[in-house]
Design a protein that fits this description.
Layout lengths: L1 H19 L5 H7 L21 H4 L5 H13 L1 H22 L4 E11 L9 E11 L7 H67 L5 H11 L1
Antiparallel strand pairs: 1-2
Amino acid sequence: MNKYKILTCGLAIFLCACASNIPKNLALEKITHADQQIPDGWLLPVKEKTSDPAEWAQIYDDPILVAYLRRAKKVNFDIRIAQSRVEQAEADLKRARSLFKPRADVSVTASGASPVKDLGNIADAYTVGMNGRWSPDVFGKTRLVAEQSRAALAAQKALSADIAQAVLASTARAYIRAVEAEMQVSLAKTNLDFLRESRRISEARYRLGDTAKGAYAFAEANYQ
């Protein structure tokens, strides 16, 4: 019995030793290089800046759609308001940053005077004044104002991008629906022409006795 226990313990130690020899980073290497097996066609580059609507509209290969999108981006009232708010936020940020810098005011004045009895004797006087001030940000109030302006600018930029994207998406959706409606009308006209021709052929064959009345009635019903 003791022999079996000793053999069992020895076998367990041997298996543990074999397991410890397996490289620890083997599974990690397999996972790391797994992306190399993805087909190139599945990997589509995503651009960080999509200011030009033609960048994502090119998938439709429709220059008319691209022209509509660029026109909408240029004249849409909501987009223009959002852009003006971004410009206002940029101005507020510049104003907040200017509080960190010292200020200097310079003034120059000139004046002339002459006595009443001797008007030709004019005395000129010039005055130059200079004033400078700088307020150190001891309690961090100025820095807080600058951070708030920076956050407001980022929020306005994000809001402007969302508004532009919504307007352009709505424009593209309306254009695509218009194109689909036109295609459906064209398809309906083609189908109607086909049914009219089928009815004419069935009527001619029925009059010649080449087909039964049921086939002609079926073609007539389809046309109606």
